């Protein structure tokens, strides 16, 4: 997996953290219904978890495939050297 993918994951997580902070601040601000803000906060958390689960699955698959390719390549090199 290339570095930009991990950088994008970091940016997504930072964005969700900003959403968390925003909802916390709005919850303390007058004029906002606490229950409505809490509902939106919970939805955002669910979306974050679902997105990260999907992203982690894709990364795991790619990294596992790369590890397998590198293992086979190393094994072939070692056999050739013997």
Describe the structure.
By secondary structure, the protein is mainly alpha-helical. The chain has one domain. Helix content is 89%, strand content 0%. The chain has two helices and no strands. Helix 1 runs antiparallel to helix 2. The two termini are 31 Å apart. The model has no long low-confidence stretch (mean pLDDT 96).
What structural category arises from helix and sheet content?
Answer: mainly alpha
* Radius of gyration, in angstroms, nearest whole number: 21 Å
Strand content: under 5%
Distance between the termini: 31 Å
Sheet of most strands: none
Question: What is the average of the pLDDT values?
Answer: 96
The amount of helix comes to over 70%
Number of strands: 0
Keywords:
82 residues; mainly alpha; 2 helices; 0% strand
Q: What is the secondary structure topology, with strand pairs?
A:
Elements: H1 3-27, H2 34-81
Helix pairs in contact: 1-2
Q: What is this structure, in a nutshell?
A:
The chain is mainly alpha-helical and 82 residues long. Helix content is 89%, strand content 0%.
């Amino acid at each position: 997996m290339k570095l930009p993918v991990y950088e994008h994951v970091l940016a997504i997580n930072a964005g969700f953290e900003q959403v968390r902070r925003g909802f916390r601040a709005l919850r303390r601000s007058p004029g906002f219904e606490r229950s409505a803000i809490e509902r939106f906060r919970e939805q955002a958390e669910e979306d974050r978890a679902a997105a990260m689960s999907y992203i982690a699955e894709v990364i795991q698959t790619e990294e596992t495939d790369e590890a397998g390719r590198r293992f086979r390549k190393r094994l072939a090199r070692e056999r050739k050297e013997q």
